[in-house]
Design a protein that fits this description.
alpha/beta; single chain; Rossmann fold; seven-stranded mixed beta sheet
Length: 222
């Protein structure tokens, strides 16, 4: 098993990233992204996709009828994402930005998005960077807009933590090989959301608690 996982990790590249995530999340990655696009994104929405990677969620949202701005720091990831968007016929609905989250302030108007999505993005950031990213998301969202976070989480029981190790460790290594980023479970995000001006609307856990989906709303007054 270890040899197989190691082989898959060493072979990882942007073109294989989605397949690797499907395996490591037992298909939940794709299923949850499809649910986000179909149940949370409405036609005509403006969506900001933080850390868009290979563009899976951005493309799903564009197919839903949204106008998407997709941001990632990896040129290779964005190159693949653009190609996939073209094959899916939604290239005109997505703007791709190769930059970091803090650079969005100078490129995008405040209060101009209905939803901000971040899938497996916050786990690549330090605690300080997470707070900065939440502040950027708050500024870019319209009042009452949605912040949608799908990411790694720390399982709540000892048994679940032990079982989830089989998922978490390979995910950490893949993230490093593909994006040169060190991932870790996103802990304490609930309190950070409150400090940034968000109110949690729903919260769900998957895969023995190792994946967490949080939907938060931008409050008008903070």
């Amino acid at each position: 098993m270890c040899a197989y996982v190691l082989m898959k990790l060493l072979e990882s590249s942007p073109s294989r990233y989605d397949a690797g995530m499907e395996i490591l999340t037992l298909g939940k990655d794709r299923v949850i992204k499809e649910m986000i696009a179909t149940e949370m994104i409405r036609p005509g929405y403006r969506v900001l996709d933080l850390g868009s990677g290979t563009g899976t969620l951005a493309i799903l949202c564009a197919k839903r009828g949204a106008e998407v701005v997709a941001m990632d720091i990896s040129r290779d990831m964005l190159r693949l994402a653009r190609s996939r968007a073209s094959r899916n016929g939604v290239e005109s609905s997505i703007t791709w930005l190769e930059l970091g989250v803090l650079e969005l302030d100078s490129r995008l108007r405040d209060g101009s998005f209905d939803a901000v999505a971040a899938t497996f993005f916050f786990s690549e950031l330090s605690r300080e960077e997470r707070m900065d990213a939440l502040e950027v998301a708050w500024r870019k969202l319209k009042d009452g807009g949605l912040l949608i976070i799908l990411d790694e989480a720390r399982p709540q029981s000892r048994l679940a933590r032990s079982l989830a190790t089989m998922i978490r460790i390979p995910l950490l290594v893949i993230a490093w090989l593909v994006a040169q980023a060190r991932t870790r479970p996103v802990s304490g995000i609930e309190s950070m959301l409150g400090r940034a001006g968000f109110k949690i609307a729903s919260q769900h856990r998957y895969l023995m608690g190792s994946l967490q989906l949080i939907v938060a709303v931008k409050e008008v007054d903070r």
